[in-house]
Amino acid sequence: MKNIGDIFSEGQLQALNQEAPTPLYFRLYTLLKDAILNGTIDNGAQMPTEQQLAETFGVSRITAKRAMDELAAESLVERRRGRGTHVTYEYSPQPVQAPLVGMLQEIESMARHSDVHVLECKSLKPPASVREALNIGEADTALHVVRVRSRDGLPFGYYSSWTAGLAKAVTKRDFENAPRLEIFRKHGLAITHVSQTISALAATPDLAAQLDTQPGAPLLNLVRLSYERDGDKEHLVDYLKVFYHPERFKYRMDLKVDN
């Protein structure tokens, strides 16, 4: 392939070199991953060597290696001794949709590269609106988990979720040691469809305290509904609300239209 630096804009390259709470290798990994997922780097293309990446992006070889290790761990590239590293992800345009595999991988990756403090993990009776969405009875319970995620000691996200249909009991320690999606898979939930709504709101005193900001400060609010398929029908199994500190978290989606 041509010089990999030529496929990125000046803005993307500058963002890579700016001061940020996320590690440099993770920013490089994200830049390369986005290019693979959106088809800029084609399936089968040979990736540059770690030394070439280091020279192109002005990073250390260790940083380049960690970024490539992350891509390999997610099966986006394959390394073969004597043959180099090649892309193994086949981009397929979707009609005004983000590929679910890319979205779920990004969610899991963010979870693995941030710290989590689990405030609550307990089966409780959900609010009426959540019970209706999950299609469970008035006396039924769902697993309620409340978490705060942070990087370098700075909290960036407050997560509150209700989950139905888990095959086994889950503990607070489980959520402290593994991403939720990994736990879901281990306990019998297979997510087939995700719907997200993003809005903004002012921080309540409780949210402000958890996210280290001021009451009334703007927050990014995301509601993520995750569905599982049962035969010909899909049913909601997870209702998640997230509140993000906008100075510590950015939400970006690359959408492609099927021509």
Summarize the structure.
Keywords: DNA-binding, Transcription, Transcription regulation. By secondary structure, the chain is of the alpha+beta class.
C-alpha end-to-end distance: 25 Å
Annotation, overall tally of beta strands: 8
Q: Could you give the order of strands across the largest sheet?
A: 3-4-5-8-7-6
Shape: globular
Number of helices: 9
Overall average residue pLDDT: 82
Q: What's the CATH H-level superfamily name of the largest domain?
A: Chorismate lyase-like
Largest sheet: 6 strands, antiparallel
Q: How helix-rich are the residues, as a percent range? A: 25-40%
Domain HTH gntR-type: 22-90
Keywords: DNA-binding, Transcription, Transcription regulation
Pfam family, one: UTRA
Protein name: GntR family transcriptional regulator
List keywords for this structure.
alpha+beta; Arc Repressor Mutant, subunit A; Chorismate lyase; six-stranded antiparallel sheet; 9 helices
Write the layout of secondary structure elements.
Elements lengths: L9 H8 L6 H14 L12 H8 L3 H13 L3 E4 L3 E4 L12 H13 L2 E10 L3 H7 L7 E10 L2 E10 L8 H6 L2 H7 L4 E12 L2 H6 L7 E13 L2 E12 L15
